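If you are new to this repository, start here. Below is one unmodified record pulled from the training split, so you can see the exact layout before writing a loader.
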Amino acid sequence: MKKILSLCFLAYLPLLAQSPDYYQSAQELTGEELRNELHEIIKAHNEFSYSSTKNILRLADEDPDNENNVILVYKGNSISKDDFSTNMQQDFWNREHVWVKSQGGFTGDETYGALGAYSDAHNLKPCDASINTARGTKDFDNGGTQNTEATDCYSTTTTWEPRDEVKGDVARIIFYMATRYMGDPGEPSLNVVDYINNSSDPLMGKLSTLLEWNEQDPVDAFERRRNQVIFNWQQNRNPFIDYPELANLIWAEDSTNPIVFTSVELQNNAPSETESQDVFAQIFSDVNTPIQSVTLKWATSWADLYNSPSENIIQMTEGDVSWAATIPALPEGTDVKYQITASADGLQNTFYGNYVVALNPFEGTITSIQDVQGTGDYSPFDGLNISTKGVVTAVLGDDFYMQDGEGPRSGMYVYTSPVIPSIGDSVIVTGEVSEFQWEDPTPEKMTELAYPDQVYVLNSNNPIPNPIDITTGGLANEDYEGMLVRVTDVTATYATFNFDDYGQWRVNDGTGECNIHNTQEGYEYPAEVGEYISSITGVSTYLFGEWKISLRMEDDVDGGSDLSGPSIIETTVINETTIAVFFSENVEISSAENPANYSISNNIIVESASRHPFQWTRVNLTTSFHVSGNYEVIASNVMDEAGNLSSGAQGSYSVLGLEENSNPHVTLYPNPSNGTFFIEGLERNEAIEIVDILGKTLYQNTTSEEKLELNLKLNNGLYFVKHLGSKTPFIIK
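And here is the target side for that same chain:
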C-alpha cells in the first residue's frame, strides 16, 4: 500500500478537512437564508437501513483508547461494541435518537420510510438502554434531579440535562436535524424553539440553552472524527461541527423572546388527592406594553392539553410579584400537564410543566401473577378484586403488560390504566380480574385487569425479564399469555395490511404460522412476503380470537432481509491491483473473504479478499495487475447474514491502463496530494486534463502560465494528469 501511495496523486482528506467548496454557496449568508442554503448542501445523503446504523456507530463513537469499545453519550463510560441491547438489557447499549423520533414523526413507518431522518447517523448516539428510557422524550434544558445511574445528568419531568462534556455535541446534533429536515417531500419539517415542547409537534427546545451549550462545550477531536466517519458513510456533514458559529448566525436573534418566565413555582410538588395545586408564575416583559393576559390550561395528558375543556382553562390573576392560579384536587397518581401562556403587545411566550398527585401508601395483600393466571384456561380469581405486582415490559397507549418473573404464567395484561407507567417501572396494580372474551366461544381467553382502581409506581429503571424463546407454531399457549416472547429465523408468509387484518402479518419458522401485531401505540413494521427476519420480540396476547405477538418498539424486529443471495450492485476500481465490490446486503465474513469465491475475466487472479470492517456490504479484492480494458467479476458462494448464497452474481468495470510518459521538464508536487498541487514546466496555451482510473475526465483547461496551481475536491484514489499534444506530451500518476 505504501508503494502505491508514493506513486499516486492522491486527494487524501485529513480528519476535519473538507474542501472549502463544500460550504462555498453559504458564505456571507445569515438567518433563514443561511439555514436554507446549508439545507441544500447537506440534504442529499446516502441512506442506510436502521439495522446497519449499529455498525456506523461502532466506528463513529469508538473509544479512542480501546478500538473494541464505544463511548456512551450520557454516562460517558466505555462499553464493548458487541454489547448491543436487543431487549432493553441493562448495562448494554442501544441507539439514542437525540432529536426524539416521536417529536418529528420519523418513527420508521411508511410515512417517512425506514430511512431518512429515522436512520440518520448524525442523530444517533450509543446510549445505555436504561438511560435511554430515563431521557425518554424530554427536551433539553438545565436543572433538575441528579440521575442515579448517569450521575452527571439531571432531569425534571419535562427536561434533560446531559453531562457537561457532551452538551455542545447534543446542541450541534439538534441544529443539524433542524437544518437537514425542513419539509422536503416525504421528510419531516423540524424546528428549534425557545421553550419546552413536550408534545408530538416537530419542535425541540430549549433554543437559548442549546446555544449556550454550543459555546460552553466547544468541538473536540472526538466530535470532529465522528463527523468525518459519518461523512464517509452518508456523504453529508454536520456543518455545526465544522463551523459552530453558524448556529448563532441562524438562531441567535430567535432565542431572545421579550416575554420571559423568570420562575414558575408549585405550592406542592406532589399534592395528595384531597389537595388543590396553586401555581405561581413570575413573568418579565421587555416590550412597550406590560403583560396583558396570562392563561393556564391543564389536562391529564399532553394530547388532551390542546383540547382542554373550558373548565380546565384558568385566567391567572396578577399579584404583587407573580401571577397565580389554582388547579383543583385530582385522584392519586394523576400525571397533571399544564401550560401557561403570557401575552403582551401582540407577542406571547409559553411555559410547560407537569406534576404527579401523590400515591397513598399501599396497604393490602399482593397476589402473584402466577396465582392470578392459575393453571387452567380461566383465572381462579375471575370476577374478584386483587392486587398484584410486576415489572412493566410493554406500554401500548393506555394499556400495558407486566411480569413478575420469567417462569410460565408470569405475565399480565392491564387494560386502560389511569396511570401510564414506563418500561422498567415496578408497579402494584389493584383491580378486578376478568377474561377478555370478544364473543369467542373457545376456552382461550385473555386474563386481564381491566380499568384498574389503582396503579402504584414503586420505582423505575428495573431490569425487565428476558423473552422466552418459542417456535411460531408454539405461540398458542396459555403459559406465555401476556409475557415477553421471541421467535427466531422466521420468514414472512403474509403481509397484506388492511383494517380486516387488525394490522397483522404472519411469520413461520417451519413449525407453523403465528401472527405479528403492528400496533399504532407501539411499533409498525412494514413486512414483505418472503422476507427473512432473524428475530422478533414482543408480548404474547390473545385478541380478536387469535394469538399474536404485539410489537413494542423498533428493536423488536431485527435482521430482516430477503431470501435471495447477495447480488453485486457496484464495482469500483481503487488502483491497478485493487477493486471494491459492493453487494446488495451485508455478507458473512468467512465466505466474503474466501478468494476462491471470486473470478475476474481476462486472466486476472484474485489473490485475497477483505470485508470492510464496518461497511459489511463491501469487499476489497487484491488482484494481479490490470491493464487497459473491460472486466467482469463473478461472485459465487458468498453468503448473506441469513445464510443465502450468491449464485454467479456479476459486476463489470473498466480500467484505463495508462503508461507514464512524463516529460522530464514537467513536474507535479506534492505527490501524493491532499487536493492542492502544482504543475511546473508547462508551455503556454497547452491543454491539460485530469482523468480517473476509469478514464472519466474530471478537469480540463488551457494553461496561460508555466506554473499551474490546482485545488480540486477529489475522493481518495489514483488519478492521471496528462497532455498528449505535440509540444510537451506527458502523463503523470
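Two things worth knowing about this chain: The chain has twelve helices and 46 strands. The longest helix spans residues 167-180.
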